[in-house]
Write a structure and sequence with these properties.
There is one protein chain. This protein is of the alpha/beta class. The chain has a single domain, classed as Rossmann fold (3-Layer(aba) Sandwich), CATH 3.40.50.2300. The chain has helices spanning 12-24, 35-45, 61-70, 85-89, 93-103, 105-112, 130-140, and strands at 4-8, 28-32, 49-52, 78-83, 122-125. It has a five-stranded parallel β-sheet, sandwiched between helices. Strand 3, helix 3 and strand 4 form a beta-alpha-beta unit. The model has no long low-confidence stretch (mean pLDDT 83).
Length: 143
């Protein structure tokens, strides 16, 4: 049985692109255009992985991710952040979420409320390289 992946992005072209790459590699996809819709789909469809944009209307990816991690029924679902936030805001999100978190987890947890078990399973920057996407997806799904 192929794994189900929920693609969450407010840009329809990004959803189409990611879904096409995932389908070509044997995955079933679901989609949502914002964090509110994503949480509904998560509860209904129970995907194996979420590809999550951060900057979205109604409910940002960051807020949605925090709510997901607090939900006992869905907190186990792996999340890969797919975003252009570094390019748009000049923030090295990958370093913030991973290097800082893993170098001093206690200090990072105190500052952000996140721990190694609650940080995303992966991170991909836009524009998306299809090969990198599949590599990160397989790592997140432990394939």
């Amino acid at each position: 049985m192929s794994k189900k992946i929920l693609v969450v992005d407010d840009e329809p072209d990004v959803i189409t692109f990611l879904s096409a790459v995932l389908h070509e590699n044997g995955y079933k996809t679901l989609s949502a255009k914002d964090g509110v819709e994503a949480l509904e789909v998560l509860h209904k469809e129970k995907p194996d992985l979420v590809l999550l944009d951060l900057m979205m209307p109604k409910k940002s990816g960051i807020t949605m991710f925090q709510e997901l991690r607090k939900d006992p029924d869905m907190s186990h679902v792996s999340v890969v952040v797919v975003t252009g936030v570094s390019e748009l805001m000049g923030i090295n999100f990958r370093d913030f979420m991973y290097k800082q978190a893993l170098s001093d987890e206690k200090k990072f947890a105190e500052a952000t409320g996140l721990t190694e078990s609650t940080i995303p399973a992966g991170y991909i920057e836009k524009p998306i390289d299809p090969e990198e996407l599949i590599k990160v997806v397989k790592e997140a799904l432990k394939e």
